[in-house]
Amino acid sequence: MNWLKTLVLVVAMLIVGSLAALSVNQQEIVLSFAIWQTPFALSMFWWLLAAFLIGLLFGTLASLWTGAKRRLELRKLRKTVAQSNAELERLRDITLKG
Hints:
Helix content: over 70%
Distance between the termini: 60 Å
Number of helices: 2
Low-confidence stretches: none
Largest sheet: 2 strands, antiparallel
Strand content: 5-15%
Radius of gyration: 27 Å
Number of strands: 4
Oligomer: single chain
Mean pLDDT: 86
Shape: elongated
């Protein structure tokens, strides 16, 4: 139940923060990168929100990618350990019988 309170608090903080940023950043701007410009103007809030969401998406994808690589490596290592343990048990049985 504690996690639900935390979730509600975080969502409420995000809503309040978004509304505050929306009310403050109303000036419309056109982004320009070197010689390229966006063909339309949006308020600063929407540009900042888009940048945040794109960063969130890329961060999540990077985290999933590295997590998948680590899970595959862990699976290989567990298989190797299981094979080594099986071989060790086989050798123990041979030495105990012999």
